[in-house]
């Protein structure tokens, strides 16, 4: 598997099929890309206000919903003022 | 199966095989079409094309929801992999 | 399933990805071609266009049988529209969300790729 092993215990940003973005610490995964995220937070983008951070806690995300898993540069992430970032939410993945 | 039988057309993908090295037209989901020279394909209809021209057919809607006349966006790409799940049809291009 | 790609010369790589143990069926074999093709693109810069219109450029670090893709040193095509990836170093893309992968023409030996495709198609019919 084009593995995400190196992401374990790192801060990751998961993009779901419906376009939602969830950030958390990757605690585990399996070959179906089922993921366990600790201290996860949804980042809700919108065009009329900054990014809304919605705490979700410990999540198990079913692999079928996962579009992308990205490793966040924690240092860089902490320098970004997300209250000022405005953007369209990501689109859904449709077939 | 002997070689003679292998060389003829006996299943749909054989038509695709005959197009290797030739320009093909591919209709994709999402109102997209591509033409390009076919270099590889597989059983999922994943394909690799070069000298690609992609056409996207877009229908914009006005603020009150009325469709505007369709417009076309074109893009040229030198080498492209197209994932098979988006493929609707493959055709040898009419010269 | 052990697939060994000989790294000797670029030209032999498509063909040498032949599977020594025939434990799975031919249709399975025919899907290995594209996987092998992506393996030859390892360490090249590619652009992956997702089905949600997000385009991500980066260096291909690995690929698997599902065509899941691992990209390093990434950037998005339109950061104004997609600031969502600002703090991202590298990412793992689910194969199923890929619409296109764009690459440089010089990364691909088209003649060998066509030969490999013919060969795999023929194998698959046996």
Q: How is this structure best summarized?
A:
Chain A is mainly beta. Chain A has 1 helix and 5 strands. Chain A has one helix spanning 74-79, and strands spanning 11-16, 21-29, 35-44, 52-61, 66-72.
Structure report:
The complex is a heterotrimer of chains A (95), B (95) and C (126). Chain A is mainly β and 95 residues long. Chain A has a single domain, classed as SH3 type barrels, CATH 2.30.30. Chain A is built from 1 helix and 5 strands. Chain A is globular and about 40 Å long. In chain A, 29% of the residues are buried. Chain B is mainly beta. Chain B has one domain: SH3 type barrels, CATH 2.30.30.100. Helix content of chain B is 13%, strand content 48%. Chain B is built from 2 helices and 5 strands; from the N terminus they run ααβββββ. Chain B is elongated and about 55 Å long. The mean pLDDT of chain B is 89. Chain C has 126 residues and is of the alpha+beta class. Chain C has a single domain, classed as SH3 type barrels. In chain C, a hairpin with a 4-residue loop joins β1 and β2. Chain C is elongated, with a radius of gyration of 16 Å. Chains A and B meet through loops of A and loops of B.
Mean pLDDT of chain B: 89
Tell me, what's the shape of chain C? elongated
The helix tally of chain C amounts to 3
Q: What's the number of extended β-strand segments of chain B?
A: 5
Sequence stretches where pLDDT stays below 50 over 5 or more residues of chain C: 1-13, 15-24
End-to-end Cα distance of chain C, whole Å, is: 20 Å
Summarize this structure as a short list of keywords or feature phrases.
heterotrimer; B: 95 residues; mainly beta; SH3 type barrels; 5-stranded antiparallel sheet; 2 helices; 5 strands; 13% helix; elongated; C: 126 residues; alpha+beta; disordered N terminus
Helices, strands, pairings?
The complex is a heterotrimer of chains A (95), B (95) and C (126).
Chain A lengths: L10 E6 L4 E9 L5 E10 L7 E10 L4 E7 L1 H6 L16
Antiparallel strand pairs in A: 1-2, 1-5, 2-3, 3-4
Chain B lengths: L2 H5 L4 H7 L4 E6 L3 E10 L5 E12 L12 E12 L4 E6 L3
Antiparallel strand pairs in B: 1-2, 1-5, 2-3, 3-4
Chain C lengths: L25 H5 L1 H9 L4 E6 L4 E9 L5 E8 L11 E6 L4 E6 L6 H16 L1
């Amino acid at each position: 598997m084009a593995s995400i092993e190196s992401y374990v215990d790192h801060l990751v940003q998961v993009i779901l099929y419906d376009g939602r973005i969830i950030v958390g610490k990757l605690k585990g995964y399996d070959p179906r890309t089922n993921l366990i995220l600790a201290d996860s937070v949804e980042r809700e983008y919108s065009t009329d206000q900054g990014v809304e951070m919605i705490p979700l806690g410990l999540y198990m995300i079913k692999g079928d919903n996962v579009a992308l898993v990205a490793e966040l540069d924690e240092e860089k992430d902490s320098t970004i003022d997300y209250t000022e970032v405005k953007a369209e939410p990501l689109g859904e993945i449709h077939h | 199966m002997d070689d003679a039988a292998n060389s003829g057309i006996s299943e749909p993908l054989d038509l695709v095989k005959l197009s290797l090295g030739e320009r093909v037209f591919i209709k994709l989901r999402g109102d997209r079409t591509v033409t390009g020279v076919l270099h590889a394909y597989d059983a999922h209809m994943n394909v690799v094309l070069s000298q690609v021209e992609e056409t996207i057919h877009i229908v914009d809607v006005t603020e009150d929801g009325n469709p505007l006349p369709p417009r076309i966006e074109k893009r040229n790409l030198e080498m492209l992999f197209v994932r098979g799940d988006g493929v609707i049809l493959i055709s040898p291009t009419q010269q | 399933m052990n697939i060994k790609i000989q790294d000797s010369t670029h030209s032999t790589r498509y063909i040498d990805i032949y599977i020594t143990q025939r434990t799975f069926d031919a249709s399975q074999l025919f899907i290995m071609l594209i996987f092998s093709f992506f393996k030859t693109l390892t360490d090249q810069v590619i652009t992956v266009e997702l089905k949600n219109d997000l385009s991500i450029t980066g260096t291909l670090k690995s690929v698997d049988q599902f065509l899941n893709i691992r990209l390093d040193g990434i950037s998005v095509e339109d950061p104004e529209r997609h600031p969502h990836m600002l703090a991202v170093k590298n990412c793992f893309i689910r194969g199923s969300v890929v619409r296109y992968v764009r690459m440089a023409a010089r990364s691909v030996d088209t003649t060998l790729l066509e030969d490999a495709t013919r060969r795999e198609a023929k194998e698959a019919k046996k």
